[in-house]
Amino acid sequence: MKIIIAPDSFKGNMSAWEACQAIQEGVLRAEPGAEVTALPLADGGEGTARALTLAAGGRFVRTVVTGPLGDPVDAEFGLIHGGKTAVLDLASASGIERVPREKLNPLKAASTGTGELIAAALDAGARDLVIGIGGSATNDGGMGMLAALGFRLLDPAGRPLPPGAENLAGAARFDPSGADPRLKETAITVACDVTNPLLGPRGASAVFGPQKGASPGMIQTLETGLARLGQCWIDAGLTDNLEQPGDGAAGGAGAALRVCLGAAVESGALLVMRHSGFFEKIRGAALVITGEGMTDSQTAGGKLCSVVARESRRAGIPAALLSGGLTAGTPDTPGEDLSVLFTMFDYAVSISTGETSLEGMIRMSRRDLSFAAENLIRAMALRTPGGGPRGPREELP
User: Fold this and answer.
1) Same domain, 100 and 233
2) Higher pLDDT, 320 or 328
3) Are residues 136 and 244 in the same domain?
């Protein structure tokens, strides 16, 4: 039996590679002779650069950059294709995981470190950049990133505004004249898993601001700041459209990359799947197993697990989901009809085995994920003529 294991990370808990290992352990306990291929994946968020770099046999470069709240943080990017292409995660420099929950503040958080990471990749000689922009702590329209690359956002007196979304509303003019000249000879592809525009009820502030610590009062301030920044881009002749899918990703960094750096936006999931060889490796598979930390209505909107399942089913291969938790709604508005999950997956289950606290679920997640994988393979064996669990049960009379 050929089985493909292709999960996302279990955010804040297990990396995609660690999830692969746990699932593989369970599969092989139930079916020791299985041919298992592990493909740790990502969809533009945390872990994208690592997944792509490992898949391409590249190397990692570590550097120190400015974190979301101004403190130095260790970040990394990958170099692939002989060093010509750099693969970066915005989350590595400006991610929400970089900020303790009690300190989350999208008014003050800035994407400066992401710009510094881009500059480091240019210093390494890369002129083709792939940037995953999921998992940000910021809502600054990418202005911190742009400032680190030489762009300036000026107040009415012509002075550069300090970093942070709280300052965007005071912008009078956007000045691209000091941008790093190497950017003009650099191709940038953005790996993005959301389709939200920059502004409005589906925009960066309204949809993603609360996840980053924004109160209802903050959201309007954030929206006003992004609108002002967007108008400055329009006045500078850089764009006449802030409604492109993905502009609202990473607190507006998606728009900054498209408008100011000429980036092309692609599905993060499909980009990583192509680079990892997913479409070649699933040929002849009996099952694809994917997984993530929490499954809700956002999963169907281009998140990795739904894309893995869609492409697997198109190839005629059943897709199973092992998730840390299942809901048909969102974390704030849980749905009741879980059967909607079967429009995406052939099998879907929460791996939790009785822990009642989040801390307990996280602590036991590797064991539970491995057990869920073993249970899945045993269930498959029950449907196979002559099949059945392997091991000690075969010795029973």
Assistant:
1) yes
2) 320
3) yes
Helix (H/G/I), strand (E/B), else coil: 348: strand
Cβ(111)–Cβ(133) below 8 Å: no
Q: Which pTM does this prediction carry?
A: 0.82
* List of E strands, 326-381: 347-350
DSSP strand pairing (72-80 vs 85-89): antiparallel
Q: How far is CA 288 from CA 153, 279, 294, 295, 305, in A?
A: 48, 12, 18, 17, 11
Q: Which residues pair with 187 in a beta bridge?
A: 128
Read out DSSP for 220-280? HHHHHHHHHHHHHHHHTTS-S---STTTTGGGGHHHHHHHHH--EEEEHHHHHHHHHTHHH
Question: Do residue 330 and residue 370 come from a single domain?
Answer: yes
- In whole angstroms, give the CA distance from residue 256 to residue 237: 14
Is residue 60 located within the same domain as residue 195? yes
Return all residues near 355 (Cβ < 8 A) that are at least 6 apart: 361, 363, 364
Give the mean model confidence (pLDDT) for residues 107-111.
Answer: 97
Q: Which of 268, 290, 322 is the endpoint of a domain?
A: 268
Q: Which amino acid is at 382?
A: L
Q: What is the dihedral of CA 268, 99, 16, 247, to 10 degrees?
A: -10
Cα–Cα distance between 301 and 284 in angstroms, integer?
A: 28
pLDDT at 391 over 70: no
CA 169 to chain centre: 28
- Per-residue model confidence (pLDDT) at position 335: 55
The domain total for the chain is: 2
Mean pLDDT check: name the lowest of 248-257, 269-278, 380-389.
380-389
Q: 208 and 81: one domain?
A: yes
Asked whether residue 314 carries a pLDDT value surpassing 80, the answer given is: yes
Q: Report the SS3 class of residue 379.
A: helix
Four-CA torsion 166, 254, 277, 345, nearest 10 degrees:
80
Range of the domain at 67: 48-268
Give the separation between CA 6 and CA 353, rounded to whole angstroms: 22
